[in-house]
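Q: I'm writing up a methods section and want to include an example of the input and output format. Could you take the sequence below and give the corresponding predicted structure tokens, formatted cleanly so I can copy it straight into the document?
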Amino acid sequence: MQRDFAELFEDQTDIGICVFDADGRFLYVNPAFLKIRNVSEKEYLGRTAYDLYNSNLTDKCIWDMVYKTRTTTTDVQTVMSKDGKVLRKHLVTIQPLLNEAGEITSAIAYYKDLYSFTKEYDDLSARVNPLDSINSFHDWLDGNRSSPPFVAESPQMKQLCQAANKVGNISSTVLITGETGTGKEIFASYIHNVSNRRDHDFIVVDCASLPESLMESELFGYEKGTFTGALHTGKKGLIESADGGTLFLDEINSLPLSLQGKLLRVIETKSIKKLGSIHPKPVDFRLIAATNVDLMQCIKDKTFRSDLYFRLNVLPFHLPPLRSRQEDIVPMANFFLRQFHKLYGIHKELSPKVYKEMLDYDWPGNIRELRNFIERIVIMGVETSAGLSGLGYAAVERSNPVVRENHSEPVAEQLSLAGVPEGEEERKIILSALEINRNHRERTAQYLHISRRTLQYKLKKYNIV
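A: Here is the clean output for your methods example:
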């Protein structure tokens, strides 16, 4: 019986499935995966995801992202033929399996043809709600991109979208500012997708998550034999991967000073020099940077170069916090409701009372917090047309304006690490800041006036989990 299920699973699913070992080597591929890729099983088993990337058969190595972050990762991957022709795009999700030490033991990956996925999504949307005013993602991918694929009902967001459309085809650098959770990456992708670079890659780099020791090689790439442990073929850097497209540097304030000067030179010369190379290579990309901190203050603190700031701040966009654009809250909540209805197959509605509470709340976590709030409602707590009740209300108590004073953002001057020597006193201040900010790492770092990378370093140093 168990074998029958396995055979049915292999024969009927149209989702490509493969299993990797701890080194990214293919251990298993199902028939759908082979059909999507149009290759034989022999071509995969024993090879690694790095082999495909180094052979230029894929545009990115998603396994490498999973290996570095140890987290489930979803991305769009382009598959190329041996002669460099684009064959198709896939929506890929790789989920690592970790042991008690947090090391990857294996991983399972799911592949779905992107065109099939978006078509199925649109067909389902048309059946569920044929009058849905939200733009079709499929149509948007096909070129109908005059409107954003996100909610923009407030005057502020409409104005920002209009400005993005005006500068889409201009290659000048863009600097997006705004609080955490305001959707800076989504807005950056919108600028890319209304530009004449839309058919090329949108490369996202989270400067805060890349280890400083690896950041230069990841951004600039390296020649073969540059250092011990390097790939024998060398490696293309993320900047070079954005050639023809857009490079998005998130949390640009976390970029080390040693690399800020090199990035400035790349911007000015439109060329990169790989590690171990003596010859610069031309690269054509549009740079969009984002930050949730005041870069002018970083300049005063001597953690950010002023010349780089003025080179980035050519086309500035500031995304307002959700609390200052209330016209977006209800449409956005309804948008997320529809998303989670389709995802979980659970239909929930919000009562007028809940809508009022959402409008009264200040949403310190912005769009990210609202999305999580709606997801918890759909999964845990709201009876149809009955508002918040029982377990659901307890689970989403942050939405209750009665307790909002307990979640308001702290006064920035309350705690500071300035002038505090490393040791027990510094450790106590960090613990107090974490408690005040309910263990939210991003807000704790802002509260202490340090970068998230510095906070992560100190948490590890003091063994604070």
